[in-house]
Amino acid sequence: MQRNTYISTAAAVVLMVGGPVAAAAAATSGAAGTPSAATAAVRADVDATGAAEAAVKHYPGTVVSLDKDGAVWHVDVIGKNGKHAELTVDTRSGKVFTEHADGDDDGDNAQEKKQLLAAKVNAQKAVKAALAAHPGQVRSVDWDDDNGGARYWDVEIQPKGGGATKHVHVDATTGKATVSSSDSDSDDDNDNDNDNDS
Q: pTM of the prediction?
């Protein structure tokens, strides 16, 4: 009889201690089948700025362009060694893969490269300025010019509420952002949905 009392007392102690611990564990991990807030935050997609930062951390240099294509960012970088690299950044994990790296230093690219490296506003700053002028989701960033004239960053943004993408031009010297008046509905970035190149 005394043995049964010890066993019952031990079981009660385990339940009393185990109950709150189990409840706390359930509270931190979320309900069965649903991720906790911490897990959900980890799964957030890598944005344009995050992709640029991951790319230059993997391949130190200056970003030339970014383009979102489905679950990856394609990022072109001019390395500190002067070589051009094409990188892919996974939007879910942030992992970076080098697709191609070469010397790519013909006359036209040399002048463009010189202007890019001398620019006061880099791709990351251009994204920030463009989003301040026109909130939304960045689809692409390109180093561009006005038919051989002044250089600027062309940032393509999908508005938060949907609709046609807008191109925001960011001055490479001042960082001033202006929404392009030449936007068209046909320029909607659907590369990640259906590539019909045939």
A: 0.68
